[in-house]
Design a protein that fits this description.
It contains 6 helices and 14 strands. The termini are far apart. The protein has a domain of about 130 residues. The strands form 3 sheets. Strands 1-2-3-4-5-11-6 form a 7-stranded mixed β-sheet, with no helix packed on it. A 4-stranded antiparallel β-sheet has the order 8-9-7-10. By secondary structure, the chain is an alpha+beta fold. Helices cover about 20% and strands about 30% of the residues. The chain is elongated, with a radius of gyration of 26 Å. Strand 4 and strand 5 form a beta hairpin. Bound molecules: 2-acetamido-2-deoxy-beta-D-glucopyranose (8 copies).
Amino acid sequence: MHLEFNKSFQIIFIFIIFSILANETLSIDPNFEACMPRNCGNGPNISYPFWITNLHESYCGQPNFEVTCNGGNPVVAIFDDDYVIEEIFYANNSFLLANSMVYDFENTCPIPLHNFSIEGTPYNYSPSYVDLFFFCNCSTYPIKDPTYRLDYASNATNLSFAVFHKEVLKHENYSIDSCNSWVNAPVETGVIKKLLEMNFTDALRRGFVLQWSEDYCSDCKRSGGNCGSINNKFTCFCSNKQHSKTCDDGKRSKP
Ligand SMILES: *[C@@H]1O[C@H](CO)[C@@H](O)[C@H](O)[C@H]1NC(C)=O
Ligand SMILES: *[C@@H]1O[C@H](CO)[C@@H](O)[C@H](O)[C@H]1NC(C)=O
Ligand SMILES: *[C@@H]1O[C@H](CO)[C@@H](O)[C@H](O)[C@H]1NC(C)=O
Ligand SMILES: *[C@@H]1O[C@H](CO)[C@@H](O)[C@H](O)[C@H]1NC(C)=O
Ligand SMILES: *[C@@H]1O[C@H](CO)[C@@H](O)[C@H](O)[C@H]1NC(C)=O
Ligand SMILES: *[C@@H]1O[C@H](CO)[C@@H](O)[C@H](O)[C@H]1NC(C)=O
Ligand SMILES: *[C@@H]1O[C@H](CO)[C@@H](O)[C@H](O)[C@H]1NC(C)=O
Ligand SMILES: CC(=O)N[C@H]1CO[C@H](CO)[C@@H](O)[C@@H]1O
């Protein structure tokens, strides 16, 4: 009898514990869960302002920061080209990306087909980039050696080459009209001398850094939230509910 009572008491006790836990779990804001950082398999964890199609809700990021997973890599589309995101530096609002053609290892001569431009994108260049200019199907080489002769894309009558400063060509009175076309591709400088020791494939593979403008996300994350954007308005999804900027509404003093 006494034992029986003890047992039912235990059961009730366990039931109470469980309902508390269940309640706790149920009260987690689904937006907070939906906007957890996720990745494509390879590459960095993706979170606001980026969001991954099919893995995140669109409100987990900003509309024009959509990322798709392609072969396990996170990819952003900029104009007509796909770029693989290699790293995201959330601390200084920037990311390292490289034209996805350099990931196609069967393509031994990855020459970009389109000019690169940030026009109409939400991104800005970082201070540490230079443009590499590709000239294709030219009738002659410039007088001085170009930075890279693109032997793979050249024959006796149609020559291709790449240079870092196309002003040099003007200086040499080289007429780019002798070329069928040219395109630019940004690459990260780092140490320019190092860059010059590389072939153009490796130079392109280094990628380049773009930045986006700062908002409240770092404060939101510091307070334990996941950032999002509802109706173009910054939102901080916290485990209990959504806040406008931070989970503690800025009450905790900044470190
Ligand atoms: C992604 O986040 C998880 C969980 O926080 C962490 O264990 C992992 O190292 C992160 N991956 C990368 C590439 O940063
Ligand atoms: C942000 O920090 C990373 C790592 O320190 C650095 O490589 C990158 O160039 C920085 N971004 C900008 C825009 O300076
Ligand atoms: C070079 O010319 C050939 C035909 O002459 C053409 O197929 C090719 O697309 C051209 N390449 C570039 C980059 O313009
Ligand atoms: C050189 O390459 C172009 C395409 O880039 C091609 O149209 C042309 O026939 C080639 N010329 C020779 C001599 O192989
Ligand atoms: C380019 O042309 C200008 C004017 O015709 C001439 O003064 C200059 O020496 C030329 N430069 C080279 C490198 O040939
Ligand atoms: C790239 O831009 C330059 C200058 O605007 C232009 O002359 C060139 O034709 C463009 N290249 C291509 C492939 O569209
Ligand atoms: C560029 O250099 C790397 C080694 O650093 C080599 O594996 C690759 O084949 C080279 N690519 C070209 C197009 O020469
Ligand atoms: C710019 C250039 O010289 N293009 C040449 C590429 O090769 C074809 C065929 O040999 C020529 O017709 C083009 O003039």
